[in-house]
Amino acid sequence: MKSDKAVIIAAGGSGRRFGEQNKLFEMLGNMPVFLHSVKNFLEVCPPENIIISAPPEEKERFIADIDKYLYGKDFKIVPGGSERMISVKNALDILPENIKYVAVHDAARPLAPASLLMECFRKAEEHGGAVAAKPVTDTIKRADSEQFIVETLNRSELWAMETPQVFNLALFREAYENALEAGKIFTDDAGIMEFSGHRVFLVVNPFPNIKITYASDIVLAESFSPPHSTL
Predict the structure, then answer these.
(1) Domain containing residue 115
(2) What is the CATH number of the domain that holds 29?
(3) Of 32, 123, 174, 223, which residue is 20 to 30 A from 113 by alpha carbon distance?
(4) Is the dihedral of CA 214, 216, 222, 228 positive or negative?
(5) Domain tally, the chain
(6) Is the pTM of this model over 0.90?
(7) Cα(first)–Cα(last) distance of the chain, in Å?
(8) In a domain, 64, yes or no
């Protein structure tokens, strides 16, 4: 029976804060950054249900790295847009008809294990949407435009969002259309579901799930060597 689950790997950003080369092509252990989570998620979804949204001008590089490190895996690659939402929408448009639940994951988060994705899928089946997250442990301040503290926020109510983020596909598509029609731009997909009035469950992620942004993050990611790691 065909899997009714799919994963969108959001790789549309160029990552120029990292340097001249796209951060996703930097080597992390034995393969480029973007392929770690892809390889992990093959334990949950077949390759034909994994769609990578990538910058059009770098498509050939993505294909070359896939052929080199995960030879024979038939991933689909769609063009990324100027905004993350466009990149994800392009992938949503080509999902197989049998898909009922879809995950969106940042390609720059190479440490997310298959077990986290599976738990997010399980909770999304119960609640319609579920996202990886961690409770905030630092004291968080809200500041004004001149960097003076305005107030201290109640951290017991604050969570740091991560990916994967998993949703019922029918609800997610509807929410995307609502957000795009309203001209809204969101930095994560849970916000899109919130905009349409859907509740999203928070899945506590006990694993390191760093987002590679700067060169120093590669060193930090390499310092983590949990059992699930592909490094």
Answers:
(1) 5-224
(2) 3.90.550.10
(3) 174
(4) negative
(5) 1
(6) yes
(7) 32
(8) yes
